[in-house]
Amino acid sequence: MKHLSEYRDADLVRGVLGEIKRTVTCPWVIMEICGGQTHAIMRYGLDQLLPQDLELVHGPGCPVCVTSLELIDKALAIASQPGVIFTSYGDMLRVPSSGNDLFSIRASGGDVRVVYTPLDAVKLAYQNPEKQVVFFAIGFETTAPANCMSVLQAKTMGLENYSVLVSHVRVPPAMKAILSSPHNRVQGFLAAGHVCAVMGYWEYPPIVEQYKVPVVVTGFEPLDILQGILLTLRQLEQGRAEAENAYSRVVTFEGNRKAQAIIDQVFTDCDRKWRGIGIIPASGWCMRDEYAKFDAEKRFPVSHINSEESTICIAGQILQGLKKPIECPAFSGRCTPENPLGATMVSSEGACAAYYQYSRR
Amino acid sequence: MTQEFPSIQGLVCPVPLPHQDQILLGHGSGGKMSHDLINRMFIPPFDNPSLRAGDDAGVVQILLEETTGKTATGRLAISTDSHVVWPLFFPGGDIGRLAICGTVNDVAMMGAQPRFLSAGFVIEEGFRVDALSMIVASMQAAVQEAGVEIVAGDTKVVQKGKADGLYITTTGVGIIPSNIEIGGARAQPGDVVILSGSIGDHGIAVLAARGDLGFETEVQSDVAPLNYLVQSMLQCSQRIHVLRDPTRGGLATSLNEIARQSKVGIIIDGVRVPVKPAVASACELLGFDPLYIANEGKLIAILPEEDADNVLDVMRQTRYGEGAVVIGEVKDVPEGRVLMKTAIGSTRVVDIPSGEILPRIC
User: In CATH, what number is assigned to the domain containing residue B332?
Assistant: First the structure.
């Protein structure tokens, strides 16, 4: 726990909070992109400690929440097939599709397994040559290198029974979509530290330039988050807009070049539909043609599926920072984690789940 | 590829999945899904005051007719628990020790001295007799340690593939002394909350034994019989209001149950809740909160503040209570809720988990 407790130190936290209070002179709206940051903010009650003038809105940075209904329906269709071992990160099992979820598929006899890394899925494919092993590759840039590595490893091992259902989304196009919206209220961004650990932050200066908003690369511990907020506020108060790094112990400008090269080898840019938002141009990654045989969408005939959403939940507005979970009429009444109406309540990283768990009074 | 950014109006999200048609693993998690199932399925047809109390064991009045013709009443605490842990052997224990301790502790949490147990075995065809014999030896040791007797049993064997090795169900009976009144609905504003030691050991030890952690850890399960600890506490104070062992769902779930049963608010101090460094590290890496991880040898005691120091002294002199600390207090409000003061001076809600505790993904 060394090098972690320091970033939760009460005295240091109070120090930065004091600095934030001295810095703020008028109301500001800052968006934290990443669901992990939303969770830390609620878990440590940081929102209670910040000045009233500062409004934090929660970004679309939970991959479980933004994975499109169509892709989840495809996942469920594949997972229901006999002879398939369907592997996924745990959070994805609860997300409802047009009327089902992976929990139900598993309870009905589907072989659905939770893995911590796609390399475990590759191992399953090696151990079960008679089965088709599919990995549900959801996530932002953070999880992409490992998912690409699993494809490269499966290729090296000559595995014919491993494929990946790719659902990757990217942060910078989502930021542009938010900033381009006529309803946008966001004046500054806390960029997602772990995404930047992989990608660096060279993609942000053009966004800063075009939209004149501060973007500060921010970590996940209380002190990291407050430091990110402080740097963003200083820029806002001084009328500056720059791409800054408040997470330099992990993130460099260039990022992890090796990881980026691996992503580039296996994935290529594509339009991607985000749940609750719609299609954002060039906001996703999908499998390059050279690796088509590892693409689960090509291996399994799942293109005919019809998907249908209900219209009760405001998760989309929450994902874009237009509304807060407590503004939803269904929040904590009809909509709870065990009875979720929307993806933001389903995932433990979803904004509504974080509100429900930590701040319902 | 498209060029236009999407309109951000008219956003929609999915319909709920209440999971009322099919049993999921989450219904066995001890969290909200379990509570919902019990309240919907089991309480209505069998409703009675003991069951409705929702404590670790049911308390019943019995009438004893003595040979002299005089009658006397007494109270029994009865509890039953099925054990399906996998793997059967884990660091610090095994299914046999767990099956004894789990039921002994549930009976002890009503202030009763557990006396008699029954044990039912469901064994899968093909199960190794040497493994069974090790498990039985472990049960024997636990029975001796707890000072209880197994007075009835049952053995069933099912076809290969129809069970996962071995399941054990135990039922325990104990007698509640006449001067003791303990129950989840008895917490009162002004009481303090004592925890007998560090949390999360059992859950992390079992996860590690499964190979699910992806790394090695020295964490051992805390599985232990707590009846002698409870006895020494009751000798020190007859005013203990609530005792509970925070098993499935962890400390957070047990405290929430008590807050709801007693219609009080419970405020705990996050800094004071003991968590071993290895457990804290494992939780950090996997995205778990130790408050939700299972324990099998810890208890929560809620009692008037005046008695707390004496009870703590007594607890700390026992093998299974040496890490006892005060972690919080009982208040009028917020009714039915648990709050936690964080290290950095804020307060947050500690809720019951809904279903299975899932690892976070990034």
Answer: 3.90.650.10
